[in-house]
Design a protein that fits this description.
With 148 residues, the protein is an alpha+beta fold. It is built from 3 helices and 9 strands; from the N terminus they run ββαβαββαββββ. It is 36% helix and 31% strand.
Length: 148
C-alpha cells in the first residue's frame, strides 16, 4: 500500500514523502491517525505538482540549514544546571535545556530534532549532541554543562 505522509514519521519518512507500507499499518494506524493519506492516482498527480512547487523553497531551506550547521558545529554552548559539591547534577540535562541554549545563541531548533548522545547527562562536563536541521543535514553541537 502506498501512502503520502502528512508529517514526519521517525524510521519511515518525512512530510510529503510517498512511501510503501504494509496494508494493516497504513489502514489501521497511519490513515486513521491523520499521519498519512492514501496514494490514489489523483492524489499522486496532486503530490507531484506540489513537489514541483516546493522544490525551490526546499533548496533555499537546505542552503540555510547547511550554513547553520557549520556555525552550530563551531560553537560551544553552556548549559546551566543545579549541581552538588561533587559535580553531580540534580536531575539531568535534557534536549529541552539544550534547545533553550540554542535559542539564546540565535538558532531556532525544535527539541524533537535534538538527540543527546549517551544515556543521559548527570555530571558536569563537556558533551556532544546531534541536531537535525533539515532532512539529511545533521550538525554536531558541543556543549558544556556548568553549575548554576
Amino acid at each position: 500500500m502506498e501512502v503520502i505522509l502528512k508529517q514526519d514519521v521517525k524510521g519511515l519518512g518525512y512530510k510529503h514523502d510517498l512511501v510503501s507500507v504494509k496494508n494493516g499499518y497504513g489502514r489501521n494506524f497511519l490513515i486513521p491517525q491523520g499521519i498519512a493519506a492514501l496514494a490514489t492516482e489523483s492524489a499522486k498527480k496532486m503530490h507531484a505538482e506540489t513537489l514541483k512547487q516546493r522544490a525551490y523553497k526546499e533548496e533555499k531551506l537546505r542552503t540555510e540549514a547547511t550554513a547553520n550547521a557549520e556555525k552550530i558545529s563551531q560553537a560551544t554552548l553552556k548549559v546551566g544546571a543545579k549541581a552538588g559539591e561533587n559535580g553531580k547534577i540534580f536531575g539531568s540535562v535534557t534536549n529541552i535545556q539544550l534547545a533553550d541554549a540554542l535559542q539564546k545563541a540565535g538558532y531556532t531548533v525544535e527539541r524533537k530534532n535534538i538527540e543527546i548522545t549517551g544515556d543521559g547527562i548527570k555530571q558536569l562536563g563537556n558533551y556532544t549532541a546531534k541536531v537535525r536541521l533539515f532532512k539529511e543535514i545533521v550538525a554536531t553541537v558541543n556543549f558544556e554543562v556548568v553549575a548554576e
